[in-house]
Amino acid sequence: MQEPVAVRGPVASRWRARSLRTYLIVMMLAAALPVLIASIYTVQHVAHSYRDNSLRHMLDTTKNLGHIIESDLASRAAMLQAYAANAQSEDAEAMSRWLTLTDMGSDSTLIVTTASNASPILVSAHSSVKGYVPPDLVQQALEGKTPVFSQLFFHDNKPRIAIAVRVQQDRGKVMILTTTPQSLVSAAQDTSDQGALIAVTDGNGRMLARSVQPERYIGTPVPDWQKLKEVGASSGAFEAERADKGSVIFAFQKIKGTPGWVIVAGESLGAFNARWQKPMFNIALVGTLALTVAVLLSTWVSRQLLRPIRQLTDASRTGSAYETPVTDDSQVLMVKEYESLRQSLVNARAQLESALGHQRQIAHALSVSEQRTRTLAHAGAAVLWTLDAQGRATSMVGWEVLAGTPDDTALGFGWLRRIHPADVADLRRQAADLLADSEHALDVEFRLRTHDGQWRWMRARGAAILGPGRHIHEWLGVLEDVDDRKRAQAAVAYLAHHDPLTGLPNRSLLQTHINSVGSARAYGALLYLDLDRFKQVNDTLGHAAGDALLCSVAERLRGLLRDTDLVVRLGGDEFCIVQKASSPHAAASLAQRVIDVLSADYFLEGQRVNIGASVGITMHLGQTQTLDPDRLLREADIALYEAKKQGRGRYVFYTPELSA
What we know:
The chain is of the alpha+beta class. Helix content is about 50%, strand content about 20%. The strands form 5 sheets. Strands 1, 2, 3, 4, 5 and 6 form a 6-stranded antiparallel β-sheet that branches. Strands 8-7-11-10-9 form a 5-stranded antiparallel β-sheet. A 5-stranded antiparallel β-sheet has the order 13-12-16-15-14, sandwiched between helices.
């Protein structure tokens, strides 16, 4: 019989085997595709981030310059207000000397006038510009308590702006400083930020100051002023046309304390876009180069990986064992290189672990240092102090910044004069016990009047420095401001026991109050209230009107109760009253008053609203009962349900039969 012969048909040719190199290339391409997609997305995301950072930089520029201008204007206004308050006589020469001393410039004029005079009654001497007063500025200064700034106006064809303050010695008079915009708004003069245009405008959109060619544009209307107004915010950005042509992007910040003055930073769109597009181009270029290098490197690595396999394949084809030495040293050398590579990887891993261990030590040291720095920052040390063994201050470094008086005024017992009178006795008592004992650290809290006249909570901490014989030589410590923490603790304690909408006590305070009534063995009543037709108001007028209605109900309930009674909001439209009632008649009288008062009309959003109330009452006698707040609430709730069942707008007392 003839042996069968293997046949190579169409199937064999269709599924022709591919080399390992082909599969490696396909695998590398498949692995590179997600990276390429992620890289494109990352570049786009970074591009948006660069653009946002550039715009944020412009906004920060306007904000910082706005603060500088606000500070400068406030300083000049304060000097003028101080001069107007302390001026003892009307002297044009004195006014001129004041202008010279304050470096206001020869273009500035000081004027004294009244609302009834059409012209100034006194003008500073040697002024090159005669006095002119904007018509409405005098009246604004007389009506207000703070300095008033004018909009830009022209006098003798020259742009001017003015500051007006009320003369304290004569309340009918006003002192006005008129000057050029360049003198008053100096922060924008010769200011540039990488080619950015800086300008200041008044509230009518006219130029007050400009970093480029100010003499040409001051007093002219700002192009696209309407676009800035349409932003409708105190700061922001928009694209517009610059006064000297060209498309620009503007960032602006309104100047506080002025009648709508605005500082604007503008930059051409080309320069603005180049700032973030150039880094993107560099990132894309570097990414392309990195991808090219990665492809070349992958190709080279695939060759290195395939070479030992080819050696094994060649050895198989020649019929020799792979371990058997052959005359071709390159094949044997290739196997040795794999071993060398393995050894190199082992050594590299050991070095990497060593380096990582060193990096962890460095990171731990940095973390400890950062924690120390953060702890010192949170400590908020305001004053460094030293006291002798009797509690007399021997040094107070930083006292002037905190209290507004020189450091030496706090020496001895002078620092006690700034302590709140209610805290002095307690502070002396604690300090007397602590200063005599070197084993204890000094840690006391008290209120201190700061430089702005406010009482703020302070914390004094210190430790004893021992001298010969372990006797206390002195105390060294810090004084820190803890007022924010004290206020936060008080706010948290308040919110834990009160309803945030109505300000009434909540359920937790109700239970505390009932327990205190029970411990006092007092006779009383618990009234459970539910508003009638409240849901209709909520559904027709909205939740905001419903919240306003609840606040009005809470206010009416407060007006009904005595100091010994307590009203609580349980939630929704349900309220509860704990009354120290002498009899059921007193509880019934209060319940009827509650129904009558809450049934009166309310006015919400221009509409008359009428609701009602139903009340459930349960009585308790402290001498014979151990009060259970949950039981009392259940009983009152059962009585309330019966009141609503009987037709609402009434009260019902709880009886055991109702539970059945």
